[in-house]
Write a structure and sequence with these properties.
34% helix, 11 helices, alpha/beta, TIM Barrel, 2 domains
C-alpha cells in the first residue's frame, strides 16, 4: 500500500506516518518525488487497515499497489529514476554507452579498447574480471588483477567502470573497484546475492535472465531495492526462444513494457542477444529507437583472439560506425 501525502505536507507529518506504519509492524519506505511524496508500506502479508493512516495530518489518500513488486513499480513512484555515476546521468533520455571487451585479458588490451571507445563517445568501460562461463574449462577472468587493470583504465581515460560480481565473496572486492556493479543473467534469481547487492554503495546493473519474464526481472530488482539500494539499472540482453539464428532473441518489447511498469532505467545489450557481431548494429538501432536508456556493447581490438565472446565483439571500426548510426537515430 502507498500512503500519498498532500502536496503541502511537511517533513514532520511524513515522519509521523512512517512511525505509525512501523508501530503497525510493517516497514515504511519514503518515496519523494517531483509531483508528490508518498510512503510505501512493505512487509505486510495481507491487506493493511488504513483508517488510522487516513485520519493523520498531511495524508491525502492511500492506494493499493496492484503489482507484486512495489518499490520498483511505476505505481509507487511516478518520476523516472535517474542514476548518477560521476558526471553521467542514466535515464534522462540521452542513451549512455557502455562498451569494452567481454573479459579484461591484459592491461594493453583493456587500455587500447578503452581509448578507442572513449574517442567515439562511450562514457563507461565494460569488462569482466570474474566471468560466469558455461564451461569450467573456459577462461574464468583475471579476478582482482583484472579489476586493478580497470582501475588503471579509469585513471588513464576518465571512463567509469562496470564489471560483474558473481558471488558474495567477489561482490565485496568488485564494490571497491567498480562504479557500477553488474549482476549477470545467470545470477538474476540468486536471491542471496541480490539481497547483498541491496547493501552496496554503488549502482547495480541487473541483467535479465535468459529465462525470466519481465515480472520476474522486476521482482529481482525489488529484492535489491527492498534492502535499501535504490540505484538499479535494468538490462535486456536477449532471452532463449526456439529461434536459433541468434544466440538469444532480443526482446525489444521489454523496453516499453518495463518503462510502463517501472520507474527504473533500462538499457540493452545487443551483443549477448545477437551472438554475432553482424547483428549488433541493427539491434542497437532498434534498441535506441524503442527508447532504451543506453547500450552495453562488447568491443575487442582483436576479436579472433578474444578469450571470450569473440564472435559477438565488434571490431573497433564497427564501434565507430555504431556510434555514428545511433547518433542519427536519436
Ligand atoms: C557479460 O556481460 O559479459 C555477460 C556474461 O552477460 P550475461 O550475464 O547477460 O550473459
Ligand atoms: Mn560476454
Amino acid at each position: 500500500m502507498l500512503v500519498v501525502m498532500k502536496t503541502d505536507a511537511n517533513e514532520e507529518q511524513v515522519q509521523a506516518v512512517i512511525q505509525e506504519i512501523e508501530k503497525m509492524g510493517y516497514r515504511a519506505v519514503p518515496m519523494p518525488g517531483a509531483q508528490r511524496t508518498a510512503v510505501c508500506i512493505i512487509g505486510n502479508e495481507g491487506p493493511v487497515e488504513d483508517s488510522r493512516l487516513l485520519s493523520m495530518d498531511g495524508v491525502k489518500e492511500t492506494i493499493r499497489v496492484t503489482r507484486q513488486y512495489k518499490l520498483v513499480s511505476r505505481e509507487t513512484r511516478l518520476d523516472s529514476t535517474l542514476i548518477t555515476v560521476g558526471d553521467i546521468k542514466i535515464g534522462v533520455g540521452k542513451p549512455v554507452i557502455m562498451a569494452g571487451p567481454c573479459a579484461v585479458e591484459s592491461e594493453d588490451q583493456a587500455i587500447n579498447i578503452a581509448r578507442h571507445v572513449k574517442e567515439h563517445g562511450a562514457t563507461i568501460f565494460r569488462g569482466g574480471a570474474f566471468k560466469p562461463r558455461t564451461s569450467p574449462y573456459s577462461f574464468q577472468g583475471l579476478g582482482e588483477k583484472g579489476l586493478k587493470i580497470m582501475d588503471k583504465v579509469r585513471r588513464e581515460t576518465g571512463l567509469y567502470i562496470v564489471t560483474e560480481a558473481t558471488d558474495s565473496e567477489n561482490l565485496k572486492i568488485v564494490e571497491q573497484y567498480a562504479d557500477i556493479i553488474q549482476i549477470g543473467a545467470r545470477n538474476m534469481q540468486n536471491y542471496s546475492l541480490l539481497k547483498l547487492a541491496g547493501h552496496v554503495s554503488k549502482p547495480v546493473l541487473l541483467k535479465r535472465s535468459f529465462a525470466a519474464t519481465i515480472d520476474e526481472l522486476l521482482m529481482a530488482a525489488e529484492y535489491i531495492m527492498s534492502e535499501g539500494n535504490t540505484q538499479i539499472i535494468l538490462c535486456e540482453r536477449g532471452i532463449r526462444t526456439f529461434a536459433d539464428n541468434t544466440r538469444n532473441t532480443l526482446d525489444l518489447s521489454a523496453i516499453p513494457a518495463i518503462k510502463e511498469a517501472s520507474h527504473l532505467p533500462i538499457i540493452v545489450d545487443p551483443s549477448h542477444a545477437a551472438g554475432k557481431r553482424e547483428y549488433v548494429i541493427p539491434l542497437s538501432k532498434g534498441a535506441i529507437a524503442v527508447g532504451a536508456d543506453g547500450l552495453l556493447v562488447e568491443v575487442h581490438n582483436e576479436p579472433s583472439q578474444a578469450l571470450s565472446d569473440g564472435p559477438q565483439s565488434l571490431y573497433p571500426h564497427q564501434f565507430k560506425e555504431l556510434m555514428k548510426v545511433i547518433g542519427q537515430i536519436r
